[in-house]
Amino acid sequence: MRIALGWCLLSSNAWTADPVSAVPQDAPALRLAVERDYPPFVFVGPNLQAQGLSIDMLRLVQEATGLRVVEQPPAPLHTLLSDLRQGKADLITSLRPTPERAAFLEFTRPYIQVPAILVVRTDHAPLATSDAWNALQGRPVAVGHGYAVEAAMRTTYPRVDWHSVSNDSEALQGVADGRFEAAVADAASVAYNVEAHGLKGLRSAGRVGFDYELSFGIRQGQPGLRARMDAAILAIPRHQRQAVIDRWLHPLNTQAMGRGRIWPAVLGAGLLGSGLLLLGWKAWRPTAKQPHA
After folding, report:
1. What range defines the domain where residue 158 resides?
2. For residue 183, is pLDDT > 50?
3. pTM reported for the whole predicted model
């Protein structure tokens, strides 16, 4: 049995996208920093080529602009950010803007939004999210190393014993096998990893007050590139956006994920007023106010 999904495309005539201008033909190919393991957004498949929702979005942008990219060897996010800071790469997908990253990157309009959630084992006592954080003080909780949510969680919950791991898959596996008490990861990544790796005995303890608004990150010093990419993102037809959603965002398997009191049970994808592609996960959760990073 699978959790039901609700699809909703919302459109608005209140915005007008700028015309998409082509990248000059003599412009050099951009060096694309490829995150090794952040499905379903970007990861390396069996053919060693980058794939995922963000890669499909980038290809649509390339079709509209003539932008050329060359994939760099895949690596964890913290390594890629160091490469971008040092000028060893030009472009990265699936990145949430932060003040620290803005010191060396520009960001396009976000093309997807997804909340981060707290994942625990099914034998974890059901608690409201605020109570769960109190229970986790001094306990090992996993979070992706260098992920935007890591700094927010460490600041908001300093008494938790945070463990930085390479990716969400490692974090969730650690919860499943008992090395970690819980993990923080984005809801789409949780859904994908549970299905792909057959993880069992996990459930959501609710949203953590942090949403990922993922953008393309562009190394500073590339005039006009952000404007071209922004225009291309806005100009992507609805049917092409929907095809990307259908390809990568799958239902959650309730036989693998425990039916805790709280779970993002309704998945909605849409074009909001700005014309962006947004993924809105609506969680069943208590009415207690959640902290915001």
Report:
1. 115-211+253-264
2. yes
3. 0.80
